[in-house]
Amino acid sequence: MAALTNMTLKAALDGLSTKAFSAEELARAHVSAIAAANPHLNAFVLETPDKAIEMARASDERRAKGEAGPLEGASIGVKDLFCTEGVQSTAGSKILNGFKPPYESTVTANLWRDGAVMLGKLNMDEFAMGSSNETSAFGPVSNPWKAAGSNQALTPGGSSGGSASAVAADLCLAATASDTGGSIRQPAAFTGTVGIKPTYGRCSRYGMIAFASSLDQAGPIAKTVEDAAILLTSMSGHDAKDSTSLDIETPDFASFVGKSIKGLRIGIPDEYRLDGMPSEISKLWDEGIEWLKAAGCEIKRVSLPHTKYALPAYYIIAPAEASSNLARYDGMRYGLRVDGGSLIDTYEKTRAEGFGAEVKRRVLIGAYVLSAGYYDAYYLKAQRVRRRIAEDFDKAFEEVDALLTPTAPSAAFALGDRVSDPIAMYLNDVFTVTTNLAGLPGLSLPAGLSGEGLPLGLQLIGRALDEGTLFSIAGVMEDAAQFRAKPTRWW
Amino acid sequence: MSERAPYRVQGRTGEWELVLGLEVHAQVASNAKLFSGAATGFGAEPNMHVSLVDAGFPGMLPVINKYCVEQAVKTGFGLRAEINHVSVFDRKNYFYPDLPQGYQISQFKQPIVGEGTLEVERDDGSRFKVGIERLHLEQDAGKSVHDMDPHWTYVDLNRSGVALMEIVSKPHMRSPEDAAAYVKTLRTLVRYLGTCDGDMEKGNLRADVNVSVCRPGQFEKFMASGDFTHLGTRCEIKNVNSMRFIQQAIVYEARRQVEILEDGGKIDQETRLFDPGKGETRSMRSKEDAMDYRYFPDPDLLPLELDPAWVKAIQATLPELPDAKRERLQSQYGLSAYDAGVLVIEGARADYFEQAAKGVDAKLVSNFTTNELLSRLSKDGLEIDQSPIPPEDIGGLVALIQDGTISSKIAKEVFDHMWAGEGAPAKIVEARGLKQVTDTGAIEKAIDEIMAANPDKVAAARDKPQAVGWFVGQVMKATGGKANPAAVNQILQTKLGL
H helices then E strands: how many in chain A? Predict the structure, then answer.
């Protein structure tokens, strides 16, 4: 059965459609792969084998009746941030212990509408707050990759660490993920997978447990550019239940993969060339530039002068929204409740026990920056920075069609390495937060290996709603990179 | 517009005047809540009108109810206020069990409606203007029920998320009566517009009163400059849910503040709760304890942008407003300001009147409507649209008076029969033989008989013409009240040789 899990989503869909194998066989292969791997990788916080088999059988029946949808029979993992009806959904937090939503998120409902099969819920940083998957109440996820000659467990990145790890280890064909400041792209870069955060408003946020509403956006993590395009097409679409959802048609993103990119103008932002950036990352970036030149693109230097303010602004806006979004976890209606002597005591005990250290840190930062007397100096100023950053991009996109940058400033680091230093941890997001602040699409694809044999990613940033161009460019780069490496199986 | 002396409190050190501003919460008359599809409605079993959005479930998102926005815009027009084509919803953050999200969605910096004016009518028909500061949309909270169990508090979320319009006045009122008149006028307005049912008993319209006192002359300085430092420190009185309580609370609070000031103390800006049982206010929280609500724009909602064409279309559908209607009733039908005022308090009353007044004497119709009909209705606890007498029949009754078929006095009797459900007035008059006697022969005969039987009275009347009234009464009695009074008078004059 190993061959069934090694496949790309596209190959699996082809195999299902030619009846080379059934959805049930495919699901069973993944279910046993998960059972074997999860004790080591901890990618899934909840395995749903019975549901997977049941959904797969139903899928096979639909296909037999000629009612196959675009994802018919595909075995998919779901980040635990997405509410799934009747299936525990915790956002990696103890405070949602035992919470089984009586509703389905729009993104996952779209997948099931298109025929996908759910394998289980994927681990993540608590409420998506983290860059290493170490803030999860369910413990850290291990990256299937290890540095050459080392047995040190590495982070798969975060917050979608479970999604990235599961896809990289062939535990699912593809996975849903979410990205508030880089939570799809950085884990994709750390695990040799492809991830895209689409334009803000492409995917509905209904039923997606909120971290920072104005920044959160769902997207896929997949094995190839084409797979990411296929999954994103299903995940996207207007939803009247989300006021920030865009009322626009979803193109067939996969149709952009394989298109010529000759004549496209690609911008290289000066400000992303950081002092002290590892030389192998600079080198990889230069290589990417060469591939694009070879494909007939015009390379231009551009300036995004407010980039250096992005990270501080992000770490004001995101916690501010989070402090309010997380106020509903009071132990009254669902999830964890720790009874105290009084109402306030119950609130305090519940939240003290239910939230982890990083979530508490951000709730406190958020409450602080919104409080009377500090609002103007922090929140309002950060919003102004946010506008400047969006304007920087607008200006750049007058001259170029897309931007190429590294995804993260390093390869995957060791678990435990940065937990005690939040600032070092926050720096992981330095290349990715800008697109969240501006609402633009950003895609990470594996472009090469570090000196230690770990995957490194490059990021493409596009105009709002121009994911299609990103998929075309990424398709060409994927061919050029010829990234074929897989983690050596140790689990 | 009539200037009135403000309410004054006489202190040991001199006189003090009142300055009042009101914040009225009016529940939008909508079948669905402001940001969720859940139903609204009074009296449902606890927690039966609650959606996952209202209960603050993870991943649930607010979606604005367009109908509620329309009602706010309509009310804005009614207040002759500026409609803001872009407004912003903010989150007001605080923890409370009846606030499941941990924040209330409200409008803080950019409300949907800006400055306006309400022309307020007092009970005596005189009028004054109150500036409107703003109107904004916000969610109501749920209800904490503390009295079901000695140890536990229960929460009913039926109200959670229901749309409220908070209408904030400028501090332009000077007496408890004027504050009550303001609420009354505002209530009439929203009922006209259909944007709020104005039911104060159900809490669908509630007022918080801002009370301060100042020395005579200070208010005028404030009005000229807009500078609040001319006014005293204000206290906000909550929980004043009837016109009577509003006035009681203000009187108590004014006295309390004057006493503090005269003892050399300072008024703390605070929120106070009115206790209707004791008729006093007590401190709820001081400014120092005031919560930091950490307002910020709700990132789940985009700024609310109104299409100018849509706003215009709403304006075009506005009903005639109470003050315009009152003026029209006065000029078109020749009604007194008082009668017109009584009729416009409810749009349905004025409609009823206009239906009834078609083609007949409007003043008579107004008299029957405002006196007979309204007092009967209120006695039976009915609204005018529940009247057992259709407006056409009031018109018919007046027509019978006008053409001399019945007298005004008989008309009242006919009205009683109409109230009892005996049908159209003409039918009643016919069936009960109430037709006025205009046959002079019959009247003469009656007069002759009375004169013959009472020679002393005849002599008295010839001596003192005022005594003729006795004969009129006798004739009416003899004819069962049906004799035409004018004819009776005329014949009596002749026969008595006056």
Answer: 16, 11
Q: Which domains does chain B have, with CATH numbers?
A: 8-315 (no CATH), 322-432 (no CATH), 440-496 (1.10.10)
State yes or no: pLDDT of A467 exceeds 70. yes
Write the ipTM: 0.96
For residue range A11-27, what is the model confidence (pLDDT) as tens digits? Answer: 999 999 999 999 999 99
- Distance, in Å, from the CA atom of A199 to the CA atom of A217, rounded to the nearest integer, reads 8
Instruction: Choose among A482, A485, A470, A483: nearest CA to A195.
Output: A470
Q: Considering the entire predicted model, what is its pTM?
A: 0.90
Q: How far apart are CA A442 and CA A439, in angstroms?
A: 9
Residue B363: pLDDT band (50, 70, 90) is very high
Higher pLDDT, B477 or A255: A255
Out of B61, B62, B101, the one facing A328 most closely (by C-beta) is: B101
Per-residue pLDDT tens for A99-124? 999 999 999 999 999 999 999 999 99
Q: Which of A232-236, B75-79, B283-287, B386-390 is least confident?
A: B283-287
Q: Does B288 touch chain A (CB under 8 A)?
A: no
**B287 pLDDT tier (thresholds 50, 70, 90):** low
**Which SS3 state, helix, strand or coil, does residue A347 take?**
helix
- Span B176-227, pLDDT tens digits: 999 999 999 999 999 999 999 999 999 999 999 999 999 999 999 999 999 9
pLDDT of residue B3 exceeding 70, the answer is no
Q: How many beta-carbon pairs under 8 angstroms link A with B?
A: 99
| Average pLDDT rounded to a whole number, residues A77-90 | 98
Instruction: Concatenate the DSSP letters of all residues of B439-470 into one string.
Output: -HHHHHHHHHHHHHH-HHHHHHHHH-GGGHHH
Main-chain dihedrals φ then ψ at residue A285, nearest 5 degrees:
-60, -45
- The sign of the dihedral angle between the CA atoms of A396, A398, A400, A404 is positive
Tell me chain A's radius of gyration from C-alpha atoms: 21
Task: Show the 3-state SS of A419-454.
Answer: CCCHHHHHHHHCCCHHHHHHCCCEEEEEEEECCCCC
| Residue B228 forms contact with A (CB below 8 Å) | no
Residue B460 phi/psi, 5-degree rounding, is -60, -45
Tokens of B379: 């006695």
| CB distance A47 to A31 below 8 Å | yes
pLDDT tens digits for A204-252? 999 999 999 999 999 999 999 999 999 999 999 999 999 999 999 999 9
What tens digit of pLDDT does each residue of A172-191 get? 999 999 999 999 999 999 99
First to last CA, chain B: 50
Are the C-beta atoms of residues B170 and B130 closer than 8 Å to each other?
yes
Q: Taking CA atoms, what residue in B is nearest to A95?
A: B58
Active site residues per annotation of A: 79, 159, 183
CB contact under 8 A, A328 and B59: no
Please, are residues A167 and A224 in contact by the beta-carbon 8 Å criterion? no
| Cα–Cα distance list, B488 to A461, B438, B443, B445, B492 (Å) | 102, 9, 7, 11, 6
Residues of A in contact with B52 (CB under 8 A): 102-103
What does the pLDDT read at residue B1? 45
What are the structural domains of chain A?
2-262+408-481 (3.90.1300.10)
Nearest to B59 by CA among A80, A14, A488: A80
CB A186 within 8 A of CB A175: no
- Write phi, then psi, for A297 (nearest 5 degrees): -85, 155
At CA B6, angle to CA B5 and CA B12, rounded to 5? 110
- C-alpha A471/C-alpha A256 separation (Å) is 6
DSSP class of residue B104?
E
CA distance A78 to A45: 10
